């Protein structure tokens, strides 16, 4: 239910204002409908103009008969005679209402404590004291199970002891009600607390109802003023040009890169310019370097700079990012001058994500997807110590989260500075060199054989592909040459997929890695070994490389999976729509069925 009053006090007629060629209310209606979460979506309005506009656009609208003080009353009247369990109140002036938020508010009714809940709503973490003390932002405090205790326009709690770290939350105006709760509300008279604060949902608390809150940190744009409308129009324009898979991509490249044997020694002078007073540089370094004195001597830590060794036993997780960010925020008063990631793809991705989460609130898991981040990260420098992933150039930071393995893909993700020193890759064990190097080879194969291919991707992809053949199939390179070339192959391979996509091997490897924890490079090789149906010539080349370097590719990794594990693996793989579209074209869903995927996995 989308309550829509024509005459808003601050911005009259705002719901009928133009937003990218359609009135705001129509945008909200369409966005809500597009979530496919609801059996029915209605606009409930007091205005003929809005009613007609919705019907004209093929939507459903209901005229409310009476005068109403608030949106809930308007909705209550509309649903009184409908046979419904749960009603969600979506604000008419929030045209970018996110599916995630609505899913979260509905998911509350599937939790273990569902029968205690009368209604559910959302809250956002806030940090800025200006916002915390702003009476236009309604704050909420919750108990340990996230049941609301009180809503107020004052800052709650009052921070008498400034050293206690408390999380402040702002209330977002999305509610999901059980029908009884909504009908009760309608009948109950307003009491003093609600009247004084002018906050509707206090009435539920005053009458002893339970409101469960879910945390949602996605920033929508609420249209309260003409300036909001301008921002919304701009956001709409940007989102339609940066969407995934569209024909054009306006993507950022790493603005500064230094290359060559010994270039790592230039790091202190590169950083000198970027140091902000009292703000440390944080080094995230792969823990294989923990005992490497020669390497550690080159890291010149100054003032309050901090060195954190990172274990790469497991690939980076959203939780790990959240913990590092929290520790940095607790330890330092100022945001760091920079984050420096030194290691393989794992550390490079972790460092990008930490930089981004220092300036974007909430958990890294909130941003797994395309273009979800709103703020530029802290200055970040990437220094690879093993080559192949292309993580040093890419626009993504791949993380495993509670629900999926997916990257933080955004214009803010790429490094501000990269240092490519082939000497740093000296100690890499042979198997690892091969698996990570094959990641690059497979990036090229999947990009060059994909339907998204264009001259831009092809030019980088072909170069990297040829370099890989030279490195992995000939014997005429010195160690130093081979390391330098692989470093550049990784870079070009990464650039190639920046304007196309990866394909079958990566989609399936993500499934392995989510369910079995298989590492990216190994997972790709396990899968690619069985993909002759899709990439015949290159799978043959790959087998030659495996033989020449005497590498053992793990076999039968899926033979002992439970039914559930197999289903999850298939779900994860199939969720990577752009990868399949690239690999198999628009008709991919008919080609790559669940049965087909299962059959492939069982061979591996
Ligand atoms: P990795 O970073 O996990 O490192 C592999 C192993 O090599 C680790 O044990 C590490 O300690 C060791 N190592 C690294 N440098 C070394 C050195 N100089 N000497 C000795 N040992 C060294 O492996 P990877 O293959 O580079 O990266 C895999 C990760 O990259 C995955 O998490 C994957 O999701 C990610 N990835 C990211 C992108 C991207 O575009 N962001 C692309 C592909 C893969
Ligand atoms: Zn890869």
Name the poorly predicted regions. none
Residues in β-strands, percent = 5-15%
The description of the largest β-sheet is: 6 strands, parallel
Distinct ligand kinds? nicotinamide-adenine-dinucleotide, zinc ion
Oligomer: single chain
Give the total of beta strands.
Answer: 20
Cα-atom radius of gyration: 27 Å
List the strand order in the largest sheet.
12-20-17-15-13-14
Which class do the helix and strand fractions yield?
alpha/beta
First and last CA, distance: 49 Å
Mean pLDDT: 92
Shape: globular
Query: How many helices?
Result: 23
Estimated helix fraction: 40-55%
SSE order and pairing:
Blueprint: E1 2-4, E2 18-19, E3 22-23, H1 24-34, E4 43-45, H2 48-56, E5 61-63, H3 71-79, E6 86-89, H4 99-107, E7 119-126, H5 129-132, E8 139-142, E9 148-152, E10 168-178, H6 179-187, H7 192-197, H8 202-206, E11 211-215, H9 226-242, E12 256-259, H10 267-272, E13 281-286, H11 293-298, E14 306-310, H12 318-331, E15 338-343, H13 345-357, E16 369-370, E17 380-384, E18 398-400, E19 405-409, E20 417-420, H14 430-448, H15 455-473, H16 479-498, H17 504-516, H18 520-528, H19 536-548, H20 563-574, H21 577-584, H22 588-591, H23 594-603
Parallel strand pairs: 1-4, 4-5, 7-11, 12-20, 13-14, 13-15, 15-17, 16-19, 17-20
Antiparallel strand pairs: 2-3, 6-10, 7-10, 8-9, 18-19
Helix pairs in contact: 3-6, 12-13, 14-15, 14-16, 14-18, 15-16, 17-18, 17-20
This protein binds nicotinamide-adenine-dinucleotide (NAD) and zinc ion.
Residues 389, 439, 443, 506, 520 line the site of zinc ion (ZN).
């Amino acid at each position: 239910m989308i309550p829509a009053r024509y005459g808003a006090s601050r911005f009259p007629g705002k719901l009928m204002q133009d937003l990218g060629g359609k009135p705001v209310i129509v945008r909200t209606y369409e966005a809500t409908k597009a979530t496919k979460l609801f059996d029915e979506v209605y606009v409930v309005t007091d205005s003929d103009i809005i009613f007609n506009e919705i019907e004209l656009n093929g939507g459903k609208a209901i005229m409310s008969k009476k005068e109403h003080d608030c949106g809930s009353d308007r909705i209550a009247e509309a649903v009184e005679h409908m046979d419904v369990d749960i009603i969600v109140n979506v604000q008419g002036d929030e045209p970018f209402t996110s599916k995630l938020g609505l899913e979260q508010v509905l998911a509350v009714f599937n939790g273990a404590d569902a029968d205690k809940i009368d209604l559910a709503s959302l809250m956002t973490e806030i940090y800025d004291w200006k916002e915390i003390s702003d009476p236009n932002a309604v704050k909420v405090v919750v108990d340990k199970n996230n049941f609301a205790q009180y809503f107020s326009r004052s800052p709650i709690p009052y921070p008498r002891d400034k050293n206690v770290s408390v999380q402040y939350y702002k209330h977002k105006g999305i509610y999901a009600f059980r029908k009884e709760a909504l009908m009760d509300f309608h009948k109950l008279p307003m009491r003093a607390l609600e009247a004084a604060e002018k906050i509707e949902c206090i009435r539920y608390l005053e009458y002893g109802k339970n409101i469960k809150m879910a945390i949602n940190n996605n920033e929508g744009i609420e249209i309260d003023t003409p300036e909001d409308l301008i921002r919304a129009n701009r956001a709409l324009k940007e989102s339609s040009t940066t969407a995934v898979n569209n024909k054009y991509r306006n993507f950022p490249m790493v603005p500064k890169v230094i290359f060559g044997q010994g270039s790592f020694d230039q790091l202190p002078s590169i950083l000198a310019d970027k140091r902000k007073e009292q703000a440390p540089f944080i080094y995230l370094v792969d823990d294989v370097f923990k005992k490497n004195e020669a390497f550690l001597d080159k890291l010149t830590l100054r003032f309050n700079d901090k060195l954190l060794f990172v274990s790469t036993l497991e690939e980076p997780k959203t939780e790990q990012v959240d913990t590092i960010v929290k520790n940095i925020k607790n330890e330092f008063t100022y945001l760091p001058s920079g984050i420096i990631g030194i290691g393989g793809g794992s550390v490079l991705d972790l460092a990008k994500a930490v930089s981004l989460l220092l300036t974007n609130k909430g958990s890294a898991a909130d941003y797994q997807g395309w273009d979800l981040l709103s703020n530029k990260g802290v200055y970040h420098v990437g220094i690879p110590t093993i080559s192949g992933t292309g993580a040093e150039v890419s626009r993504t930071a791949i993380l495993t989260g509670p629900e999926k393995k997916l990257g933080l893909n955004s214009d803010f993700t790429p490094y501000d500075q990269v240092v490519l020193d082939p000497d740093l890759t000296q100690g890499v064990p042979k198997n690892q060199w091969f698996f990570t190097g094959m990641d690059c080879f497979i990036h090229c194969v999947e990009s060059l054989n994909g339907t998204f291919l264009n001259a831009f991707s092809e030019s980088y992809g072909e170069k990297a592909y040829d370099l890989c053949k030279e490195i992995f199939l000939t014997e005429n390179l010195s160690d130093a040459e081979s390391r330098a070339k692989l470093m550049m192959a990784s870079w070009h391979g990464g650039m190639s997929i920046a304007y196309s996509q990866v394909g079958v091997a990566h989609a399936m490897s993500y499934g392995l890695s989510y369910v079995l924890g298989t590492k990216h490079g190994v997972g790709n090789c396990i899968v690619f070994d069985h993909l002759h149906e899709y990439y015949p010539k290159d799978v043959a080349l790959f087998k030659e490389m495996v033989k020449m370097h005497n590498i053992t590719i793990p076999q039968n990794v899926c033979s002992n999976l439970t039914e559930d594990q197999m289903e999850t693996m298939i779900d994860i793989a199939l969720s990577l729509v752009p990868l399949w579209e690239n690999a198999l074209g628009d008709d991919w869903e008919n080609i790559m069925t669940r049965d087909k995927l299962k059959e492939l996995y069982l061979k591996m």
